[in-house]
Amino acid sequence: MSKIGDRLKTGQTCETTGIYAFDGYTDGSVSPQPTQEERVISLRTTQVFPPIRSSNRGAFWKLQRVA
To answer: What are the tens digits of pLDDT across the range 20-63?
Structure first.
């Protein structure tokens, strides 16, 4: 089970339903930035962490709040 502040990445399965914030690209690049709508996502247990679709890149996601 994930805790607040845990960092997960595109392709991993969500273990904790909650609100996740973009925390960087998995390839280390810094641009382009995700769109405003892509920066914060809501995921439920068993869903898979998505890529940033606007740039087609893998991303790190940080758990902000358990829902």
So the answer is: 999 999 999 999 999 999 999 999 999 999 999 999 999 999 99
Q: Pick from 8, 57, 50: which is nearest to 32 by CA?
A: 57
pTM over cut 0.90? yes
- Count helices and strands (H / E) in the chain: 0, 4
Please give the Cα distance from 14 to 35 (Å, whole number).
22
Beta strands in 1-67 (DSSP E): 7-9, 18-25, 40-43, 59-66
Cβ pair 38, 53 in contact under 8 A: yes
Would you give the DSSP letter of residue 37? G
Domain ranges of the chain: 7-66
